[in-house]
Amino acid sequence: NLLLSEVEKFEIQSTEQLENFRLDFISRNSKLSTLFDEFKTVPKEQKRTLGQQINVLKQAAEAKFRTKKQEIEDAQDATQGTDLDITLPSSYETLGSLHPVSQVRDEIIQIFERIGFNLSEGPEIELDWYNFTALNFPENHPAREMQDTFFIEKDPDILLRTHTSPVQVRVMKNQKPPIRTLSVGRVFRNETISARSHCMFHQIEGLYVNEGVSFAQLKQTLLYFAKEFFGQHAKIRLRPSYFPFTEPSAEVDVYLGTKTESDYRLTKGTGWLEILGCGMVHPNVLENVNIDSKKYNGFAFGMGIERIALLRYDIPDIRMLFENEMRFLRQF
Ligand code: PHE
């Protein structure tokens, strides 16, 4: 009983005191274990009562030790937490986003995939034959100068492709009609860099080869695209043009109406804007890739992705798309 009140009174406020308590009442050489040793020598008839008392004492000591230990640990946690200001905003990693050119590219691909076009890709470093000759550009013809080419090697001529049409040449060489393909990728032209043009940009070109393909189908396909991409109010207009690989050829303008009609903000609020080139595949091109031009014909169209992105996002200068300025990119 004396020991029991000693256990109850023992003051425990610190880890040190807790340890002293443990040494006094719980450890191997504590007062309690001495008591156990004495217990063995006690006469039989006293054992029962004494045993019970020792047990009560033991449990009391252990219970006190456990509670105090917990109290001290909790208090330590609380003080360690004082330099943590839970009212501060948490830090977080900002997620990246797709580049506007990639976003526009993906959207255009999806629109044409819905009407059965598949995707094709090819090398950026190309042989002259795929980039020019197969596409009906005559040797030493001024038409080649339309494209301001970066040459890598002469004889055989190796160059940076000036358009994605060589990808379509590769597809036509390897597949049998019907062919519905979209060629997507980076192209290069030796042009002076300005707000409107760059020496590196991206194109998407479509090609459809089958029996009995008509110009009306081409026009309807492009109208479908314009409405899907720019909104149902969009109109298109075809102007006669020239490309060596298509005959007849046309340039396509899109009319997006006034700013109130349009879903998109435009630098020029009204009027017609040129967005792509197109035409019926020249029979010479089909023959160059061993497709019978008496049996098959086709249409093709091509557009610059940057030009469309500038239109959609009302970006005043194409160079902004390549500078990787974070304040610009974060807006998309
Ligand atoms: N390849 C042409 C260009 O780079 C675009 C085009 C593709 C025109 C298909 C007509 C038909 O300008």
TrEMBL record:
Textual note on the cofactor: Binds 2 magnesium ions per tetramer.
CDD domains found in the cross-reference section: PheRS_alpha_core (cd00496)
Transmembrane helix found in the keyword field: no
Keywords, ordered alphabetically: Aminoacyl-tRNA synthetase, ATP-binding, Cytoplasm, Ligase, Magnesium, Metal-binding, Nucleotide-binding, Protein biosynthesis
EC number, UniProt record: 6.1.1.20
Cellular localisation: Cytoplasm
Swiss-Prot/TrEMBL catalytic activity: tRNA(Phe) + L-phenylalanine + ATP = L-phenylalanyl-tRNA(Phe) + AMP + diphosphate + H(+)
EC primary class: ligase
Any single biological process term in GO: phenylalanyl-tRNA aminoacylation
Pfam families, per the entry: Phe_tRNA-synt_N, tRNA-synt_2d
GO MF entry, a single one: ATP binding
Chief location of this protein within or outside the cell: cytoplasm
Residues the entry annotates as binding Mg(2+): 247
Domain Aminoacyl-transfer RNA synthetases class-II family profile, residue spans: 102-323
InterPro entries with a match to the protein in the record: aa-tRNA-synth_II, aa-tRNA-synth_II/BPL/LPL, Phe-tRNA-synth_IIc_asu, Phe-tRNA_ligase_II_N, Phe_tRNA_ligase_alpha1_bac, Phenylalanyl-tRNA_Synthase, tRNA-bd_arm
SUPFAM superfamilies according to UniProt: Class II aaRS and biotin synthetases, tRNA-binding arm
GO CC terms of this entry: cytoplasm
Subunit structure: Tetramer of two alpha and two beta subunits.
Family: Belongs to the class-II aminoacyl-tRNA synthetase family. Phe-tRNA synthetase alpha subunit type 1 subfamily.
HAMAP family per the UniProt record, alphabetical: Phe_tRNA_synth_alpha1 (MF_00281)
Entry protein name: Phenylalanine--tRNA ligase alpha subunit
